[in-house]
Amino acid sequence: MLDLHARGPYALWREALAVVDRVFSPPPALDRPVSGCIRCIPESELRLLGGDPAEVPEDLLGHFMREVVDHWDADQYPLLWRRLMPRALRAWGPGGHSTDPALELGHLARHGAGLQGWPTPERSAVEQAFRALLAIALTDGRPVGEITDLMEGIAHATGGLEPWLSHIAGLSGPQADAGLLRLALCWATELLWEELGFAWWDDGDTQTIADWLPTQRSRIAVFAARHPRCKTAKDALIAIDRLHAGDHSPWFYPYGLDQPLGLAP
Questions:
Q1: Residue 96, Cβ density class (10 Å: 0-12 exposed, 13-18 middle, ≥19 buried)
Q2: Beta-bridge partners for 36
Q3: Is the entire prediction scored with pTM above 0.85?
């Protein structure tokens, strides 16, 4: 296991960025001017995208990352992502401006930029950065929905959840334990309510998560024993046990009520 108590996730992130900067320098060269949907992006901005990646404005970078894949030339699209990847990773990282990583990261999938077909040093450097991003997300106390969005995007980009579930399971330390049980409770509860799904990853299989959750029960049980007043840990164990038994949720479904609750004044 990677002990984050001894070696913090931000150190992993800095190291990963250093590798990314080295691997993508100089940026891959374009063989022609950038082509794209001029109804959505003016030619002046297309020219900016074809220039120095460091000079691309933040709003234009965000537009490129969110724009649909078929608005770009298919053979040029992966190259644009490779040129902008150091900037994109920083947008997804601490202090970045990304608001929808599940959507943006999904554009790296095989039907988009094809990350898995990039040169091995580039792909390895990006995946190292993804591991650091997940370590930070799991341990910095952010809302659990932001962790699941990041996980979805990374899994979509790389073609599967399994290595990333193994990665977060291999992180150790108090913050990693706390983050993992919050994530486990979120996923297990949504599975019990039959509402777990992915926002942008049509091929994603939530059964992978359902199969993974019981493998984390013993770790969560240890945490619960050490912190007997932690309701999150207790509820995560209940939810995982209900899933394993094929039972229903013990909690009232809080959404879509036809009538408001009659609270006393």
A1: middle
A2: 72
A3: yes
